[in-house]
Amino acid sequence: MKKNMGGVDKLIRLVVAAIFVVLYLLEVVSGTLGIVLLALAGIFTLTSLISFCPLYLPFGISTAPKEKK
After folding, report:
1. What's the pTM value of the predicted model, to 2 decimals?
2. Given this model, what pLDDT does residue 65 score?
3. Which pairs from 50-56 meet CB under 8 Å and 24+ separation?
4. For 21, 44, 51, 54, which has the most beta carbons within 10 A of its beta carbon?
5. Do 10 and 48 contact (CB within 8 A), yes or no?
C-alpha cells in the first residue's frame, strides 16, 4: 500500500473529524446524521493515520510529496 496522502491533506481530515465528533458530543447533530458523521470521523482518522485513501486510487490522485530518485 503506497502512501498517497500529504501532510496538509491529513491535517484537514483530522480537523474535520474532530469537528464531527464535537458536533455529536454537543448534541448539535444526533440520530442517523450523528452516527453517519461519527463513522466519517472514524474513516477520516484512520486514513490520516495510515496516509492512504482508497478513493484516490481510481482517480490517480496523490497529495503525498514526490519521492526523489
Report:
1. 0.86
2. 86
3. 50/1, 51/3, 51/4, 51/5, 51/10, 52/1, 52/2, 52/3, 52/4, 52/5, 53/4, 53/5, 53/9, 56/4, 56/5
4. 44
5. yes
pLDDT digits (tens, 9 = 90+) for 22-64: 999 999 999 999 999 999 999 999 999 999 999 998 998 888 8
Sign of CA dihedral 52, 4, 9, 11: positive
**Residue carrying C-alpha cell 453517519:** 36
What nine digits make up the cell of 68?
Answer: 526523489
Look at residue 15 in the predicted model and tell me its pLDDT.
97
Instruction: List the chain domain ranges.
Output: 7-53
Cell of 49: 493515520
